[in-house]
């Protein structure tokens, strides 16, 4: 991996190979998958049925691959072509829908559905509509997990500092009551801890570019991001660390 070249390049979007490369770099330095997978295993253990998994925003398929053995059928929604290539390698038996969630046609009734870090790319006014659309793909008695960063963590403070954007899945809770009857039952908010540790400034800047690639948000200068990273994340030993705990909104569809 040519870190120097990749770290200097602006990430154009989720269909850009630089986005996937930066995402892979982020995953190599975070414990997010380990902590999230442990949480998901506990959720799976409590499910009344394990027929179908629906993974919306499956990315390169790390979590899909982890969960797939527990389910008879696996369906993924992933609009990014570079991510779909990696997803096909990670979980070959997954049925993949290439359209974004707002346009996707999903023939499934999932016992577990994930909407994982997707709402950043959906206008805030459409969060409830998107959630309702996904809940229609959840089987009665099934569960939807909506994952977003905790807006108070160090990562999202950086995002807010440079882009002015604020993402808080807790705001969605009050809107769920207005969804059609039979879609939403009990809801719970869980917190899954996560920490990123970068081995060098160059790696951490590449990851910061990935985290700041918010749609329709201003792009800060490299110099400004570097100054922020040095000030807030520097461990004074050549490495960099920040917290990025996740919020998980657990939504149950009522059983008949």
TrEMBL record:
InterPro entries, per database record: SAM-dependent_MTases_sf
UniProt-listed Gene3D superfamilies: Vaccinia Virus protein VP39
A biological process term (GO) from this entry: methylation
One Gene Ontology term of the molecular function aspect: methyltransferase activity
Keywords for this protein: Methyltransferase, Transferase
Keyword Methyltransferase attributed: yes
Endpoints of the signal sequence: none
Annotated CDD domains: AdoMet_MTases
Protein name: Class I SAM-dependent methyltransferase
Domain of life of the native organism: Bacteria
Pfam family, one: Methyltransf_23
Organism, scientific name: Streptomyces eurythermus
Keyword Methyltransferase: yes
């Amino acid at each position: 991996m040519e870190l120097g070249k990749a770290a200097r390049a602006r990430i154009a979007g989720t269909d850009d190979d630089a986005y996937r490369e930066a995402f892979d770099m982020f995953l190599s330095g975070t414990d997010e998958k380990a902590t999230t997978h442990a949480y998901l295993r506990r959720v799976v253990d409590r499910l009344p049925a394990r027929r179908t998994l629906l993974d919306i925003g499956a990315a390169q398929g790390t979590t899909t691959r982890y969960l797939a053995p527990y389910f008879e059928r696996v369906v993924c929604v992933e609009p990014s072509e570079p991510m779909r290539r990696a997803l096909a390698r990670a979980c070959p038996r997954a049925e993949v829908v290439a359209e974004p969630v707002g346009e996707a046609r999903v023939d499934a009734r999932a016992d577990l559905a994930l909407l994982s870090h997707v709402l950043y790319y959906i206008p805030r006014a459409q969060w409830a509509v998107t959630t309702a659309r996904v809940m229609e793909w959840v089987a009665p008695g099934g569960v939807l997990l909506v994952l977003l960063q905790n807006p108070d963590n160090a990562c999202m403070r950086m995002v807010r500092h440079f882009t002015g954007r604020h993402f808080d899945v807790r705001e969605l809770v009050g809107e769920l009551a207005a969804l059609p009857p039979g879609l939403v039952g009990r809801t719970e908010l869980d917190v899954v801890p996560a920490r990123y540790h970068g081995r060098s400034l160059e790696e951490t800047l590449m990851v910061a570019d990935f985290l700041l690639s918010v749609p329709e948000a201003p792009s800060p200068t490299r110099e400004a991001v570097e100054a922020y990273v040095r000030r807030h994340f520097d461990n004074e030993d050549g490495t960099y660390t920040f917290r990025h705990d996740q919020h998980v909104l657990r939504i149950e569809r009522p059983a008949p």
